[in-house]
Amino acid sequence: METAGNKDFDSETEKKGLGTPATRAGIIEKLVSSGYAVRKGKQILPSTEGRELVNVMPAYLKSAAMTAEWENQLLMMEKGQITDTQFMGEITSLVGKILSVCREIPEVERRRFQKAREVIGKCPVCGSDVYEGKQNFYCYNRQCDFALWKENRFLGSMEKTLDKKMAVELLDKACTHVKGLYSRKKDIKFDADLLLTLEDGKPRFHLEFPKKKKK
């Protein structure tokens, strides 16, 4: 990355390569935490999701030349050759172009990218696939608002977060057994069944306590 795009920079452009070591480190960490790259020893390699994302991205977004061009535009603005309004206008135009291209990506290509992610269940509202996100388990259907949040008020009051195993069971059976729930009132930990119901398409939780088997 130190020399990426060097041939595309203006000879007076101070910055060579893509970003600074500090910004590159942040970008790499973001890619790893988002699941688009993985660490293997001293190497950073693309994950299956990362490769699929690259396949559906337009070519110009993958080129170091575009970053080089923006660095040159910054230099021109510094020299007064273009105004900040012109620069931001170009940025706005680029974002519009990106969104337009993304909307034109064929559905089959979008699904190819989505299939790289693990389907953890079916949405109880619309029946679409449910995937795991950073903060929740969300429905693939953009018209559907269903989501199970990892940190939610109900479980948070008992010092618990929703994990993948719990989400899978809730989507499959609308019930999961949870251990180590905490009662602030009694200052004790306890186990219970967490049940999922829907209210106007929104998930609602409540607890049930399994009956103890008689000896």
Structural write-up:
- The protein has 215 residues and is α+β, with helices and mostly antiparallel strands.
- The chain has helices at residues 21-33, 48-56, 64-78, 84-103, 107-114, 153-156, 164-173; strands spanning 37-40, 43-46, 119-122, 129-132, 136-139, 147-149, 175-183, 188-199, 202-208.
- It folds into two domains: 6-112, Topoisomerase I, domain 2 (Orthogonal Bundle); 119-208, no CATH class.
- The protein has seven helices and nine strands, in the order αββααααββββααβββ.
- A hairpin with a 3-residue loop joins β4 and β5.
- α2 runs antiparallel to α5 (107-114).
- Residues 12-17 have low confidence and may be disordered.
- It comes from Blautia stercoris.
Provide a short characterization of the protein structure:
With 215 residues, the protein is an alpha+beta fold.
